[in-house]
Design brief:
Distance between the termini of chain B: 18 Å
CATH topology of chain A: GMP Synthetase, Chain A, domain 3
Distance between the termini of chain A: 22 Å
Helix content of chain A: 25-40%
Mean pLDDT of chain A: 74
Protein name (chain A): MIP18 family-like domain-containing protein
Pfam families (chain B): WD40
Radius of gyration of chain A: 15 Å
Oligomer: heterodimer
Order of helices and strands of chain B: EEEEEEEEEEEEEEEEEEEEHEEEEEEEE
Largest sheet of chain A: 3 strands, mixed
Number of domains of chain A: 1
Order of helices and strands of chain A: HEEHEHHH
Number of strands of chain B: 28
CATH architecture of chain A: 2-Layer Sandwich
Strand order of the largest sheet of chain B: 1-28-27-26
Strand order of the largest sheet of chain A: 1-2-3
Structural class of chain B: mainly beta
Keywords (chain A): Chromosome partition
Mean pLDDT of chain B: 94
Helix content of chain B: under 10%
Number of helices of chain B: 1
Largest sheet of chain B: 4 strands, antiparallel
Low-confidence stretches of chain A: 20-26, 47-53
CATH superfamily of chain A: Fe-S cluster assembly (FSCA)
Family (chain A): Belongs to the MIP18 family.
Number of strands of chain A: 3
InterPro entries (chain A): FSCA_dom_sf, MIP18, MIP18-like
Shape of chain A: globular
């Protein structure tokens, strides 16, 4: 896919110990439990019965381990059906930011109820062309056209595929 | 007749189900109206659907599905002024021209040339020209020749980004385009020789939008237009078109007013009715209607919110269009939820 790694020595952080939820969390669309920050973070980083991390396209480590996505990345208001995810690309000129952003959007689109409005952005100050990137990631028509491109869909699916740990 | 004084509501007449993916655009056939109005819709399911209202039962059904032509999303559709032809703009890079043969539609031509997704298509008032625009940043003008022939007359470059919509002026051969580059461009051929140039760009310095402009719509007389944007505003523009009609040259468009504070998600569509009601469809699933307040003000005209229909759809609204019929105030809407809805604006009983 990419011939040379752009970020050869990423800083890898320890995985956060998973908080044990006292109530049984579920992804059931008909559940009356409001969706909260932790649940969306979990959606992004693992599913109920599988360890399914969104892989950083360049490295086998998960985006959580690289601090690209943390719990604080997620702002959610279930009552308003609104979520905003802020991610931090690992390198300033990270050319994979578009793929990461698109993958996060696709994962949320597939996991959240259709009533949800999803905004994706890069953390302020974390990317050279931040405004341009944010605009592209949030243009619904551009996203739709991109997802009709089989090459891009393949890259996104690879990003979303389960890691074999 | 002051609409603000009437107690109006937008009633859902019918929900048209059938598309298997989001619906991007709706277009009313300009000549058919009562008793059998016709509506076209196009979708991410790669098809165009033609809907007709039965004169007997008053209910809407899907008359035909235009399929197996486009290989990707059909983003917008537009009827020729005669009502006999329908153009379909697709992400597959082509624009289809369909002829209504009565019980079915036939694709009589496919316009190729854009380098990537075609976003919009528009016929001029006389039906002699078509315009298309694309993510390839260009606007193309096509000449309608006889015998199902279409010739590329002009390739217009100028926008620096993805062009979202093209719209011919309702009475003059002046072409308007709006873009991801936040501007609206006006294209005109001074000598009427088909050599179109960009004669005006409405950008932030002209009080224009600060983000992607998604749509343009003209009032019936063509001396005003409304534009909508990702910057959450609607803007009203005006021009002295009598100057143009009398051959005095190009009359520039100027900003008249900005409607801000009414929308909190991207406004994808806006349409100006023949009786001066402006409709907007936005990413918050709501339809809003605005009218001229008609109050004399030193600052010029202002527009008031006539009504807001929340949760008009279950997802983003991509298109709103008033019916050309003079008899009733019908509005069609299209959404990411895969539905087309027909609405009637009427006084509360």
């Amino acid at each position: 896919m990419v011939s040379g790694l752009i970020n050869e020595n990423p800083t890898v952080y320890e995985r956060k110990e998973r908080r044990v939820r006292t109530d049984s969390s579920n992804n059931d669309e008909y559940s009356v439990e409001p969706i909260d920050q932790l649940e969306i973070f979990d959606i992004l980083l693992l599913q109920l019965h599988h360890i399914r991390d969104i892989r950083d396209p360049e490295h086998p480590y998960s985006l959580e381990q690289l601090k690209v996505l943390t719990e604080d990345s997620v702002e959610v208001d279930d009552g308003k059906s609104y979520v905003r995810v802020t991610f931090t690309p690992t390198v300033e000129h990270c050319s994979m930011a578009t793929i990461i952003g698109l993958s996060v959007r696709v994962k949320l689109m597939r996991s959240l109820p259709s009533r949800y409005k999803i905004d994706i952005r890069v953390a302020p100050g974390s990317h050279a062309t931040e405004a341009a990137l944010n605009k592209q990631l949030n243009d619904k028509e551009r996203v739709a056209a991109a997802l009709e491109n089989p090459n891009l869909v393949e890259m996104v699916d690879e990003c979303l595929s389960p890691s074999f740990e | 007749m002051d609409l603000m004084e009437k107690n109006l509501e937008l009633l859902e007449v019918q929900k048209l189900e059938g598309h298997n993916d989001r619906v991007w655009n709706v277009a009313w056939n300009p000549v058919s109206s009562s008793p059998s109005p016709i509506l076209a819709s196009c979708s991410g399911d790669n098809t165009v659907r033609i809907w007709e209202q039965s004169s007997l039962s008053r209910s809407w059904t899907c008359k035909t599905v235009l399929e197996e032509t486009h290989t990707r999303t059909v983003r917008s559709c537009s009827w020729s002024p005669s009502g006999k032809l329908l153009a379909s703009a697709s992400f597959d890079g082509t624009t289809g021209i369909w002829e209504d043969l009565g019980d079915e539609f036939e694709c009589i031509s496919t316009l190729e040339g854009h380098e990537n997704e075609v976003k919009s298509v528009s016929w001029n008032a006389s039906g002699s020209y078509l315009a298309t625009c694309s993510r390839d940043k260009s606007v193309w003008i096509w000449e309608v020749l006889g015998g199902n022939e279409y010739d590329c007359a002009s390739v217009l470059n100028g926008h620096t980004q993805d062009v979202k919509m093209v719209q011919w002026h309702p009475t003059m051969d002046v072409l308007f385009s709006c873009s991801y580059d936040n501007t609206i461009k006006v294209w005109w051929s001074e000598d009427d020789d088909g050599d179109y140039q960009c004669v005006q760009t409405l950008d932030e310095s002209s009080n224009g939008h600060s983000s992607t402009v998604w749509a343009i719509s003209f009032n019936a007389t063509g001396d005003k237009m409304v534009t909508c944007s990702d910057d959450l505003t609607l803007k009203i523009w005006m021009a002295d078109i009598s100057m143009m009609h009398s051959g005095e040259g190009y009359a520039p468009w100027t900003h008249l007013c900005t409607l801000s504070g009414y929308h909190d998600r991207t406004i994808f569509s806006t349409h100006w009715s023949s009786d001066d009601i402006i409709a907007s469809g936005a990413g918050d699933d709501a339809i809003r209607l605005f009218v001229d307040s008609k109050h004399d003000s030193v600052n010029g005209p202002s527009y008031n919110l006539l009504l807001k229909k929340e949760k008009a759809h279950e997802m983003d609204i991509n298109s709103v269009q008033w019916s050309p019929s003079k008899e009733n105030r019908l509005l069609a809407s299209a959404s990411d939820d895969g539905m087309v809805k027909i609405w009637q604006l009427e006084t509360k009983s």
